Amino acid sequence: MRIALLLALAVGCHGCAWAQDKRCEQLSQAWAKAEPGFNPSLEAKVVAPQGLPVHLGPDRSCPTLKTLARGEFVTAYAVRKGWVQVGLLVNGDWGSAWVAEAGLELIAPYGADHPSRQPAQAASASP
After folding, report:
1. So which residues are the signal peptide here (predicted)?
2. Is the model's pTM score more than 0.85?
3. CA 114 – CA 57 distance, rounded (Å)
4. 8 Å CB contact between 48 and 70
5. In this predicted structure, what is the pLDDT of residue 55?
6. What is the pLDDT averaged over residues 104-114?
7. What is the C-alpha to C-alpha distance for residues 68 and 49, in angstroms, rounded to an integer?
8. Which end of the chain is more exposed for a tag (fewer CB within 10 A), N or C?
9. C-alpha dist (Å) from residue 99 to 64, 92, 115, 122
């Protein structure tokens, strides 16, 4: 413990950020293992008006990787305690991260029919 504290002090905030990232990665792994996920995974749409921060782990103090805009779609793997584990592209790499459940609409398993996937009918096309 003493060595870790001295190391954190020696490298400054960068070391503190690394320790926070490590804690969030461990939390993410533990939660992902503890919760059986959706099989198949679900399509989910961002409904949060101001966008939805994507966190490294299921905790608001975990680093934000990016913010999803309202209307974007992600793959939902599991829900636990108000957090959704999602799959998405971050900086060109596919990965898993966490978002607040309240900011998503869980739609349906991929491949299933759902009204949100139907093309809009033009009003003039009605008889």
Report:
1. 1-19
2. no
3. 30
4. yes
5. 93
6. 81
7. 11
8. C
9. 10, 19, 24, 35
Give residue-wise pLDDT tens across range 5-61: 223 323 333 333 444 688 888 888 887 776 677 778 899 999 999 999 999 999 999
Count of residues in the chain: 127
What residues form DSSP beta bridges with 43?
75, 108
92: left (phi over 0), alpha (psi -120 to 50) or beta: left
| Domains defined for the chain, CATH in brackets | 2-114 (2.30.30.40)
Q: Give the count of beta carbons closer than 10 Å to the beta carbon of residue 18.
A: 13
Three-state secondary structure readout of 28-86: HHHHHHHCCCCCCCEEEEECCCCCEEEECCCCCCCCEEEEECCCCEEEEEEEECCEEEE
User: What is the dihedral sign for C-alpha 61, 62, 65, 71?
Assistant: negative
Residue holding tokens 């991929």? 110
**Average of per-residue pLDDT across 63-70:** 92
Measured distance CA(109)–CA(106) in Å, rounded: 9
Question: First-to-last CA distance in the chain?
Answer: 75
Radius of gyration of the chain (CA): 19
